[in-house]
Amino acid sequence: MDRRKLRSAIYRRHSRRAFADKPLSARAEQVLKGEIARINKKSGLHIQYLAQGSRFFNRLAGGYGMFKNVQAVIALVGPPDTPRIAPGYCGEELVLAATVLGVDSCWVGATYHKKDVKDCVKLAPGEALCAVIALGYAGPKRSLVEGLMLKFAHRKPKKLPKLFNEVQGTPKSFMRGMEAVGRMPSALNRKAVYFTFERGRVAAALTGGDKSGGLDLGIAMLHFELGAGLAGRWEKQGEHYLFYPELNNF
Questions:
Q1: Which CATH superfamily is domain 3-148 in?
Q2: How far is CA 223 from CA 64, 124, 130, 185, 231, in A?
Q3: Residue 155: pLDDT above 60?
Q4: Are 10 and 183 in contact (CB under 8 A)?
Q5: Do 3-148 and 160-245 come out as alike in CATH topology?
């Protein structure tokens, strides 16, 4: 999907968990399945689309909140090792694609009926279920549960000084990227990510030794690229991931 459309979706998406009793449109389902196939081919992941999503959320979900009328889920399946950067990056790409299509969503990293999802997905040897994304059409008003969860989840954009170190000569493209990172959702309600810009190079890392935050770091990486208007690759060096843009605009 066009990356400019995905970038625009960052600033209008809000996490929702109470949906209308209305199935996804045939077009939305078709486009999302096509995006999943494209992303799987590119990334080597085994992301899967599951209809009738309410069966995975029909009871209180571990204290994280109740879900209503979930129409479908995207199951993020990939390597069992951590951190899970690729599932976070690719999952957020699908979340934003859903937003472009008018479909609402919610990242669910741990508090869903994992066994029920595992019974429905195809897991090859060496694969694991990393997280799911709930899909549906939300109403104009938030439910009581959504309002409470919004209050406790700190949905407001994270303050930029807590996300990166600003040095003299920091380019505007980096700042635009960080503004998009500040709008990121969290698969585990942590946002334990941090970016640096030094010697003309962007680096991203998990903070506080949080090895389980790979999903969030992957989400942040995509948001940075889209916000900065750049495409490229991330390479691991020690505890950091360095960004190599296709065009060296920095």
A1: NADH Oxidase (3.40.109.10)
A2: 25, 30, 20, 10, 11
A3: no
A4: yes
A5: yes
**Quick one: which of 43, 102, 97, 100 has its CA closest to 74?**
97
pLDDT in tens, 46-62: 999 999 999 998 765 45
Residue ranges of the domains in the chain? Answer: 3-148, 160-245
Please state the CATH superfamily assignment of the domain spanning residues 160-245 in this structure: putative nitroreductase (tm1586), domain 2 (3.40.109.30)
pLDDT of residue 65: 54
For helices 214-228 and 85-100, angle between their N-to-C axes, nearest 10 degrees? 50
Whole-number Å distance between alpha carbons of 9 and 97:
8
Which pTM was predicted? 0.89
Instruction: Catalogue the E-assigned strands of 5-144.
Output: 48-51, 72-78, 104-108, 128-136
Query: What would the mean pLDDT of 193-202 be, rounded to a whole number?
Result: 89
The answer to whether the beta carbons of residues 26 and 75 sit under 8 Å apart is no
For 191, residues 6+ apart whose C-beta sits below 8 A from its C-beta are 158, 184, 216, 220
> What beta strand segments (E) does 80-182 contain?
104-108, 128-136, 164-165
Q: What's the whole-number mean pLDDT along residues 227-250?
A: 86
**CB neighbours of residue 13 within 10 Å:** 18
Residue 242's beta-bridge partner residues?
Answer: 203, 235
Dist CA 200 CA 190 (whole Å): 28
